[in-house]
Amino acid sequence: MGVIVNKDNTKNDELSRRIDADLREKMRSGLDFGEKEDPDFTEGSEYVRNLKKTSRFGWVWIVLVVLAIVSLILMKTL
Questions:
Q1: What is the CA 10 to chain-centroid distance, rounded?
Q2: pTM of the model
Q3: Positive or negative, the Cα torsion across 58, 59, 62, 66?
Q4: Which of 53, 54, 26, 51 has the alpha carbon at shortest distance from 40?
Q5: Residues 26-73 pLDDT 10s
Q6: Chain-centre distance of CA 11, in angstroms?
Q7: Of 4, 17, 72, 76, which has the fewest Cβ atoms less than 10 A away?
Q8: In terms of DSSP H, where are the helices of 1-78?
Q9: For the purposes of burial, counting CB atoms within 10 Å of the CB of 39, is it exposed (0-12), middle (13-18) or buried (19 or more)?
């Protein structure tokens, strides 16, 4: 035995159309986030606005953490 459920999706469809239109307009304008060939909107977001990019020596920190973990393991085994 099954249950047939009908749902009116007109409200969701209208909201989806408006959101889609807003996003397309932002993509076309490019004024808020700068002109780019492939805008991904991450540079202009509030979350990453005050963050700094990792320098080219960021890999040094990874090496130091790995060496610290290896030294801790070696100290416990001795």
A1: 30
A2: 0.36
A3: negative
A4: 26
A5: 888 765 555 555 556 666 667 777 777 778 888 999 999 999 999 999
A6: 28
A7: 4
A8: 10-29, 58-77
A9: middle
